[in-house]
Amino acid sequence: MNNSISGFSKLSKEDKINWIANQYFANPNEAVETIKQYWNSNTNLQQLHDEFIENTITNFYLPMGIAPNFLINDNYYSVPMVIEESSVVAAAAKSAKYWSTRGGFKAKVINSEKIGQVHFIYKGDVAKLENFFNKTKATFFSATESITKNMQKRGGGILNIELRNKTNELENYFQLHATFETKDSMGANFINSCLEQFAKTLKEEAQNYPDFSDDEKNIQVVMSILSNYVPNCIVRAEVSCKIEELAEKKIENPQEFAEKFVQAVNIAEIEPFRAVTHNKGIMNGVDSVVLATGNDFRAVEAGVHAYASRNGKYSSLSHAKIENGIFTFWMEIPLALGTVGGLTSLHPLVKMALQILKKPSSHELMQIVAVTGLAQNFAALRSLTTTGIQEGHMKMHLNNILNQFQATKDERVAIAKHFENNTVSHASVVELIENLRK
Asked: How confident is the model at residue 243 (pLDDT cuts 50, 70, 90)?
């Protein structure tokens, strides 16, 4: 069967769905029914969702949960989390409650600088290009005044523009490397608009620069784009307490627990195979709040993992130490987030999530997101160094398996009793269900 199609985007929504159903499903009517059952009955709300992206056929649901009791800088937050993975919200909530009785989380934004670049090719005398840039630099600022005017009123704008010579890595390659402050917006559109004007100004000014030869005037702009690597847009989150205060039901020997916990973090600092999984756990917390607040989790992921490799080797984002009887667990991560613009003013649940978070500024949201990541990491490491990761996770996973097999109430009671003293695995659950049904 030929599954190619011309003009798909021009089809009506109904025709798109019918084409997909007939092309890929043995029972097209059943496929159409599945697609349509996820439509919102409120037609205005459905149209809003349809217009977020192109070629929309339905909505893809993810659960939205709440992790309460986060004490951050002496204020309590209930944190909305959008994620499909079992036990993540429960783990975050457990960590939040645990640390709320031990002084809570401390967080601060160290810097909020964002970056954009104009990438261009220049075949000529480097000294002449440097002189040209120094004489023209002010023009880049003045040429973007109409774009930056409103941002400047909010205290943001272009911080600096540099000429960077990258010819030792790629022949004739240079950059205009610009830094920005975008206040409460993530700022992608603002930054990209500025960069495109920089590129236009660069080419125009080069054409009129008397010291350039005709060849040197023909600067070739390859592209103008913001960077999702923001190593100077950093937030720090940490927890600390006396070692004896770490004690709880599953931590009978707090000194031994603290030492083992620090060792686990040390391993993630030097072993990339462990660091990737360690940091994935952090991102379980980070991404779920980034999603709930309508921010770009792909951009955050890319920037965070680049930051984890900044010293030439992929390493843990979080760190732990014991000093003078005090246990401290902390991390610094890059987070470019916004609380205005984009989906924040369009998606009803994003607006609700921000309301639940007490309408935070971008700096406050950075702190909340970083803390949720640290809480998630603490929960994972606590499990790994005490009972093991599978005990809690598989209990949550058991429920998913039971739903998959549409287990009855009586079957659920019998299965729960069986696994009180037996290890949960997909195969063992299926076998038990089959035996019960015989």
From this structure: very high
Angstrom distances, CA of residue 2 to CA of 23, 32, 404 = 9, 20, 33
Distance, CA of 78 to CA of 92 (rounded, Å): 11
Say how far apart CA 272 and CA 294 lie, in whole Å.
30
Q: CA-to-CA distance for 384 and 414, rounded, in angstroms?
A: 29
pLDDT at 389: 58
C-alpha to C-alpha distance for 379 and 125, rounded to whole angstroms: 57
pTM, two decimal places? 0.89
pLDDT tens across 254-290, in order? Answer: 999 999 999 999 999 999 999 999 999 999 999 999 9
DSSP structure class, residue 331? E
Rounded CA-CA distance 305/92 in Å is 21
How far lies 384's CA from each of 238, 244, 250, 261, in Å?
20, 20, 12, 9
**Rounded CA gap, 214 and 22, in Å?**
59
Is the separation of the CB atoms in 249 and 141 below 8 Å? Answer: no
Element (H, E) at 186: none
Measured CA to CA, the distance from residue 267 to residue 206 in angstroms comes to 53
Q: What is the pLDDT of residue 268?
A: 98
Select from 270, 268, 292 the least CA-distant residue to 282.
268
Pick the closest to residue 206 from 146, 163, 258 (CA basis). Answer: 163
Residue 65: beta bridge partners? Answer: 81
Predicted local confidence at residue 412, as pLDDT: 86
Residues 6+ apart with CB under 8 A from 9: 54, 55
Inter-CA distances, 337 with 75, 174, 401, Å: 20, 28, 36
Known catalytic residues are 85, 280, 296, 393
Q: Regarding beta strands 157-165 and 220-227, do their DSSP bridges make them parallel or antiparallel, or are they unpaired?
A: unpaired
- Mean pLDDT for the stretch of residues 159-169: 98
Confidence check: pLDDT of 88 > 90: yes
Q: What is the pLDDT of residues 120-132, one digit of tens each?
A: 999 999 999 999 9
Please give the mean pLDDT across all residues of the chain: 95
Provide the β-strand partners of residue 120. Answer: 174, 221
